[in-house]
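// run 5 | inverse folding | seed 20
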């Protein structure tokens, strides 16, 4: 490799590492069904390890270098809600939290809802206002979608349309566990595009898919946070 090629490559890497976020809204919808609960490092009933893999993966994604590199005068707002089939939507991350505050809220927030099935429309019903910024994403993290109910899947599609009309861009991530994924519903939620699927069923009693969540979240965040603060030719 010539010196010129090396310097060009180094500049390209530096430019990518220097990328930051514009003013951005990031909101999560957490399916807190039995699959998400089972995906724990130890006893899922133990209050210290309930939903801990989900919590860790999301917290690490919020430490994405592009978020950390963003200047303080740029506004990054994070929110998050949990849902299941037998409880109303619960705030996990208070709306408009900073990334640091959001990470702190995850420690206790995922314990607040009663674990049960996965009714996607219930989670979407928790989104009642639009984002502050055009650069936004609503990330639906689901282990299956609404089981055995055409009506619930139709409600999910209707709620997704309503949420998009508020100005949210929705991305659905399906994490394969011991239950089947309802692709028709999650495709409708995902603006009629196939959802992101993380499929690792090497042991269906321990859904390893949750351990592979962070790279997908990083990809989503990187697509939002692609502002290069340096002047050409660096960027």
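// decoded
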């Amino acid at each position: 490799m010539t010196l010129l090629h090396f310097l060009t490559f180094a500049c390209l890497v530096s430019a990518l590492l220097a990328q930051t976020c514009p003013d951005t809204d990031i909101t999560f919808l957490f399916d807190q069904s039995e699959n998400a609960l089972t995906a724990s490092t130890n006893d899922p009933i133990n209050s210290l390890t309930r939903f801990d893999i989900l919590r860790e993966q999301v917290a690490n994604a919020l430490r994405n270098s592009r978020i950390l590199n963003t200047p303080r005068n740029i506004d990054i707002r994070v929110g998050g809600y949990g849902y299941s089939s037998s409880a109303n939507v619960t705030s996990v991350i208070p709306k408009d939290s900073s990334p640091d505050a959001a990470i702190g809220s995850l420690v206790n927030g995922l314990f607040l809802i009663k674990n049960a099935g996965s009714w996607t429309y219930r989670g979407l019903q928790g989104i009642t206002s639009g984002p502050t910024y055009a650069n936004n994403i609503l990330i639906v993290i689901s282990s299956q979608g609404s089981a055995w109910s055409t009506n619930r899947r139709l409600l999910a599609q209707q709620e997704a349309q309503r949420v998009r009309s508020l100005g949210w861009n929705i991305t659905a991530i399906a994490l394969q566990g011991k239950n089947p994924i309802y692709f028709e519903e999650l495709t409708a939620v995902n603006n009629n595009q196939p959802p992101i699927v993380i499929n690792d069923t090497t042991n269906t009693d321990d859904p390893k898919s949750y351990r592979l969540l962070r790279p997908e979240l990083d990809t989503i965040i990187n697509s939002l946070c692609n502002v290069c603060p340096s002047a050409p030719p660096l960027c």
